[in-house]
Write a structure and sequence with these properties.
Layout (H helix, E strand, L loop, with lengths): L16 E6 L2 E6 L40 E2 L6 E2 L6 E3 L10 E3 L1 H15 L1 H7 L1 E6 L4 E8 L5 E6 L9 E2 L3 E10 L7 E11 L6 E7 L7 H22 L5
Helix pairs in contact: 2-3
This protein binds zinc ion (ZN) (2 copies).
Amino acid sequence: MADGVCREDDNRGAGNKKLTKSKSGLRIIPINNTARSPFELKEPTWSPDKENPECSNGKCGQKFDFLKRRHHCRRCGQIFCAQCCQTRVMLPRMCFVDPVRQCFRCSDITNAENVFFNSSLKLLTNGAQFDVSSPERPVLCQTAVTSDHRFIRFEPTQGQAPPERVEVARILSTEVTQSTIEYAPGQTLPEAVVVLYRVPGSVEERQVRLSAGPHVNDWRLSTNWIVALERALELVYEGRQPSQH
Ligand SMILES: [Zn+2]
Ligand SMILES: [Zn+2]
């Protein structure tokens, strides 16, 4: 089972959850709207029954009648016959408590995402070391995504003032620098990432540069962390679009 997207917050009191019931199933969501995970997807609008005389899977085309019932895919909202929408998969990005019915295409996407939640996202929350320039002073920091996935947090290894945390939902873009690094001969790796983000409650844009430079304790972990961040942001950007497909 995938790690839930909707998890407890970092002791900031925003971790209070409520159970709600939508027509798609039982969901557990934060009471406070601002505490929502940046990975969360909105539930789709259900396609109306009367506009769908047959299964939306083009390869199937099953006509609906009294015996052949319509089923909505919980992820895309389209209508399918029972066979084309029989897979139930955990869908943490929509905060469902139980596995929910999904069409073939959506269940494939969701399964791939769940692999991500179990691997890359865990790596991001476990953290890695970077030289963090924000932008003036490089400070060696343990860098991690918070357990509620809302922030990138920096903890200096030598007690300096921590750089400002970055709200994941307000990241605008990233630019990764690939390079052949001297302590990894012959390998081209993502060595640094510049994160462009908006300051909370403002339109002001700022940059922070994370470098897996020679000071970090485990450069391979740090480069993997950058790769995981890029994958995570693809999902975050997707969640911002009005439609899922
Ligand atoms: Zn679907
Ligand atoms: Zn079908």
